[in-house]
Amino acid sequence: MLAGKKFQVPLFSSSAKIKGWPYVIAWCHRISGLLLVAFVLFHIYAIQSLGFPDRYNADMKLYDFFILRILEWALSIPVIFHALNGGRLILYESFGVRDDRSMIEWLFGLAILYVAILGILMLMGTQSVSPFFFWLLVMAGGLSLASGALSKVWDRRHSLPWRLQRLTAAFLLVMLPAHMLFMHLNPSMAKDAEAVVVRLQSGFMKFVDLLLLLALVFHGGYGLVSIAKDYLSSRALTVGLAVLIALTMLVAAWAGIRITLTV
Amino acid sequence: MRSRYSITLRIKRYDPDRKRSWSQDYKLEAGRILRFTDLFRKINNELDPTLAWNSSCEHAQCGTCAVKVNGKPLLACELLVENAVAFFGTTLFRVEPITIAPVVRDLIVDLEKAYERIEKIKPYVIDPVENPHPGNAYQVSPRDLEHYVEATRCINCFCCATACISSHRGFMGPNAVLASVVRIMDPRESAKAERLDMLYSDQGIYRCHTSMACSFVCPKEIDVAHFIALAKAGRFGAKGRK
Ligand code: HEM
Ligand code: SF4
Ligand code: SF4
């Protein structure tokens, strides 16, 4: 079925033949992780103009351009791929799920479904939900997934950052795809500064967004440091780069927290 | 079925005296069940005595003939011409040394350097438990053995380490992790804590990203990634016990 088709993707097939599909997928996970870090940083920068509704609305007008709409939609590909594959890795490593082939089929099946649903919602652009209700459900889902992972990854032998990265991964697995879905249910949800500001007056919404922000910044930062450690052998260079990454992520976190709390 | 093939080996060469590397084509007529080590020998005998390569047992038991063929790390003594043509769908084969240690000459790498990582994790029983039957060999129960016997087949050919996504700078490598996990699962070993400290470190399992290339290329068909994941889950005992 799905796997049969997948095994013929020209660009990836030669690499898969030599080192297997999970290897190709590991590279895709890494590249999508890097893309997501770049996007998160850009996104935090972009919402800084929420303090100036006119500027924010003007910025958001840019998204009326067809090509940017397509890019916005395409962003869901790395998001859902990285999220579901992260889930697959945690299932394999920490939950002992060894039926990896069918996990890969699920990964692709669910990812395609999500990207399609998001596209349809973007085209309709007329749905509206109560933010409180939506996020109450999603938070319940995100927190229960994280607590489900907790018992499996919280082995004290593991380094604390590693445990936290797995925990944030389980939490983000629900929160991030939901965040994208929510923002595209109705264009005004995200593109009208006033609507965003009104929503953020609720303490609950502030709490949700801050938790999401902290999880993103930590998870992405740890991911970058982990990649650096794969490539660098000099300890001084590794520590230097880790400090640089941590500072960047702290600045991003601070900017995000500030705008969330002050609008 | 064809009985002979006209093939080309494009071999990456390195001359340590002039510090020069280049790739050289050797055109050969080869019978279908010649192995790649046979082809190297044929090159030495018929075309170029200066080509340097490594092998010892030529029965897939020592791991010294590991090379990369068209990017895939494998044992040259196990690869038959007809299988290579069928698998890669070509008669042109790029042959390169494995990438886990500096090249000494042509296809030969510094295995002593490669073994340094294995030695670091002490691939033997560090501190044996008391033998309940002194004077006899220690008896490991078949039920205990079943959980890790597959991993004891490792010959340290470093194919897995060559394929690994983790670039091998900081990482001890899949086979070193495997060797350590085996000794943790081994009831004769008492120095488990020392081993766990080595595994749960930046040079250990945190460098592994479950790309499973190790399992995919292992010539001894060991599911290396499975054992590394057991270490991540802390499940070293029988039936997933902690
Ligand atoms: C949406 C839910 C997400 C899940 C379930 C998830 C899961 C994971 C997991 C399990 C890993 C570890 C892979 C490994 O063993 O190396 C990882 C790595 C990584 N993640 Fe995520 N992640 C998510 C979202 C994100 C986001 C939003 C970002 C960007 C801010 C991100 C950036 C990274 C990076 C850079 C890495 C390192 C990749 C590597 O080492 O190759 N992830 N993710
Ligand atoms: S695990 Fe397999 S590929 Fe790796 S060194 Fe051992 S035998 Fe070779
Ligand atoms: S599973 Fe881990 S050790 Fe094996 S090749 Fe992938 S990253 Fe390397």
Describe the structure in your own words.
The complex is a heterodimer of chains A (263) and B (242). Chain A has helices at residues 2-6, 10-19, 21-46, 53-61, 66-74, 76-95, 100-124, 131-153, 160-185, 188-191, 193-199, 203-231, 235-262. With 263 residues, chain A is mostly helical. Chain A has a single domain (10-262), classed as 3 helical TM bundles of succinate and fumarate reductases (Up-down Bundle). Chain A starts with a helix and ends with a helix. Mean pLDDT of chain A is 93; it is low at 1-6. Chain B is of the alpha+beta class. Chain B has 2 domains: 4-109, Ubiquitin-like (UB roll) (Roll), CATH 3.10.20.30; 111-232, Fumarate Reductase Iron-sulfur Protein, Chain B, domain 2. In chain B, the strands form 2 sheets. Chain B has a 5-stranded mixed β-sheet with strand order 2-1-5-3-4. In chain B, helix 6 packs antiparallel against helix 7 (192-199) and helix 6 crosses helix 9. Chain B is elongated. Chain A binds chain B through residues 17-20, 22-23, 25-27, 29-30, 89, 92-96, 98, 100, 152, 155, 157-159, 162, 226, 229-233, 238, and chain B through 70-72, 163, 165-167, 169-171, 196, 200, 202, 206-207, 209-213, 215-217, 225-226, 229, 232-235, 240. Bound molecules: protoporphyrin IX containing FE (HEM) and iron/sulfur cluster (SF4) (2 copies). Protoporphyrin IX containing FE binds at residues 29-30, 33-34, 36-37, 40, 82-83, 86-87, 89-90, 169, 172-173, 176, 216, 219-220, 223-224, 226-227 of chain A.
Helix and strand content put the structural class of chain A at mainly alpha
- The total of helices of chain B stands at 9
| Computed Rg of chain A | 19 Å
The CATH superfamily of the largest domain in chain B is identified as Alpha-helical ferredoxin
**If you average the pLDDT of chain B, what whole number results?**
95
At CATH level 2, the architecture of chain A is Up-down Bundle
Gross geometry of chain B: elongated
Q: What is the CATH C level class of the largest domain in chain B, in words?
A: Mainly Alpha
Q: Please identify the top-level CATH class of chain A.
A: Mainly Alpha
Number of beta strands of chain A: 0
Based on secondary structure, the structural category of chain B is: alpha+beta
The SSE order of chain B reads EEHEEHEEEHHHHHHH
